[in-house]
Amino acid sequence: MKSRIAIIVLSLILVIPALSGIVKTQINYDIFAYLPEKLPSVQGQNIMNKVFGFGGTGILMVKNQTDVEVENLKRKLEQVDGVETVNWITDIADLAVPREFLPEELVDQFYSGNSTIMQIQFEEEAASEKTHYAVQEIKNILGPNTYFAGTPPMLSELRQLLESEKFVYAVSAIGFILLLLGLTLPSLFIPFLILFSIGVSIIYNLGLAYYLNGSMSYVTAAIAGALQLGVTMDFSIFLVHRYEEERKTKEKNEAMIAAIKHTAMAILTSSATAVAGFLAMVTMSLGLGEDLGMTMARGILLSVLMILTLLPSFILVFDKWIREYQHRVMIPNFHLLAKFVTNRHKLVFVVFLLLFIPAFLGFKNVHIVYDLEQLMPKTLPSIQNLDEIKKEFTSTDSAFLVMDSKISDQERLKIKQQIGEIDGIKKVIGYDTFADPAIPSEFVPENLKNMFIKDQYNYMLVQMEYGSYDERTTRAIQQINKLTEPYEGHMYLTGQAVLQNDLTTTVRDDMKKVDVISVVAVFLIIALAFRSVALPVVLVGGIELAILFNQGLDFYLGRSMPFIGTFAIGAIQLGSTINYAILLVTRYKEELMNYPKEEAMYRAITASGEAILSSALALFAAVIGIWLFSDITLLRDLTFMIARGAIISLAVILFLLPAVLLTLESFISKTTFGWPKAKSMKEDETLSELSLN
């Protein structure tokens, strides 16, 4: 209160380095970059990148052009800064040699009808800055009848799309939140102060990413700001409501002191559950979880700091304008809902238990999409080009088997033969495919040797018969991994299909880990806060029902769930919406000191319903704009699930949870230290009292 001007000035000064950090933060668009380094596929990919210059691989199909024209195009592409090599048939055979004299498997590798295909190897990873600009230059070179696809162009296009949409995400979040707060808060001026205060904390959070890590994933960059706004909005609402209540009987300074004193503990307790949910993602093997989880946990702490310092300072400075622009709050009351739930709580409790059945069945049977290409916009040119390429070259999916010099020629040839016999493998191509092992090395063209052998390493190209996400491809990869087990540390299977398979396995393992850790952490926080055994079970059980319904609802709607929803939704929804349940229980406990349990619950619902509704709608409003305006399927699906989860949690807490608390009142009373003993009242007297209210 005394330092409000200093707080405002210091907060605004710190925005400058934070904005600088935001500008300098590198955005990583490659999900595979977050796979754990211990995986053989990642280790093999690192060798391919460093030794063979396979930082990123693009595919270029050229239609209806002569070999001479294609060769000229190849030479132009090789001059692009950021391109390591362009692999085409002329690296192995002279164009002067007629095609009919070349090995059939070599011709099939590069030609199909009037189309030919080449691979463009980039110097750096597919998501790097240098590769991005190389992709742009390549697109400027390419003319008609060319189809450029692969991870580098896809990530480059994704980057351009996200950069063009991020402003829309921010504007939509601000617009929807202002509309919501304008309807639910008593002053038209307060919403702007709340948004500015939390906005400063968001800028701090995103700027700190540069000073702490230097980069963040595109998923985090896209949703972190909106999610931080939605999750922490209710903390500011707690403070504002209490300040308005205190302001009726006190002058502004005393009112603010009282408001902070009475809400600080509630805000800190509520924020602890949200932080715990997000920190659970930090334990994931997939680095994307740590990136999003740590960013959000840090963001919540920064928001709490600003809500308890900057927001009160703004309110005190602008109190005159707040009083001037007062209006009637437009929130429905909850009397009818409270009356229905309290009068029929045993029936509603049975419904609560029965709902776990369809929720669990939907969760277990929902189709989860791990295919990153399916989660990309279909409008991306690279995605459309890939569809055209697959019409001519049915198998564009491949893997690389990387070996060091410890593997003998005999062992290499044996492995090659065994892999070629596996169902789902189209062919295995390596140095031995084009050069007989009996021919002395000095008689083999240097470009052929350099293509497959470098610095004590060599590799073979394993072409898949089916797509990367086909179950038969997964089985083939598993069989190859078994063959390479005896050569662990000397032989690595890698490539897009293998990395995708490892992503699927990693996410499935992480999902179980995150669920357990987040539930245990939130359980312990509630147990300590309420000194209870029963309440953590009841509250976490209620939110888990909401989470199961949210994740399983897509099964009943005939939709698919993105893989990120398997771990992110549980942690986000549990950590952010458990606060609504805590608010209801806190008020119920308070009312139990003076009223029988039914009337106490009736009063708790009517008193806390407005705050719970506002909080849930704030989270909904903050992220729904991304779903409405984004063309990126992964972001649309994730934010839609977050928004939907807020509404489902709202329904569970206001409709089902009160019935559970009333039905289990005796059990809660016996297992909770300091729980008020409910007063007794005849049922007809209770109903009469409720009707009067």
Description:
- Strands 2, 3, 4, 5 and 6 form a five-stranded antiparallel β-sheet that branches.
- The two termini are 39 Å apart.
- The model has no long low-confidence stretch (mean pLDDT 87).
- This protein has 693 residues and is α+β, with helices and mostly antiparallel strands.
- A hairpin with a 2-residue loop joins strand 4 and strand 5 (115-122).
- It contains 26 helices and 14 strands.
- The longest helix has 35 residues, at 496-530.
- It is elongated.
Quick description:
It is a multi-pass membrane protein. The protein has 693 residues and is of the alpha+beta class. It is 67% helix and 10% strand.
Write the layout of secondary structure elements.
Elements: H1 4-24, E1 26-28, H2 40-51, E2 56-63, H3 67-78, E3 83-87, H4 104-110, E4 111-112, E5 115-122, H5 129-141, E6 146-150, H6 151-184, H7 190-212, E7 215-217, H8 218-247, H9 252-280, H10 287-308, H11 310-317, H12 319-324, H13 335-343, H14 345-365, E8 367-369, H15 381-392, E9 398-404, H16 409-420, E10 425-429, H17 431-434, H18 446-452, E11 453-454, E12 457-464, H19 471-484, E13 491-494, H20 496-530, H21 534-557, E14 560-562, H22 564-592, H23 597-629, H24 633-663, H25 665-671, H26 683-692
Parallel strand pairs: 1-7, 8-14
Antiparallel strand pairs: 2-5, 2-6, 3-5, 4-5, 9-12, 9-13, 10-12, 11-12
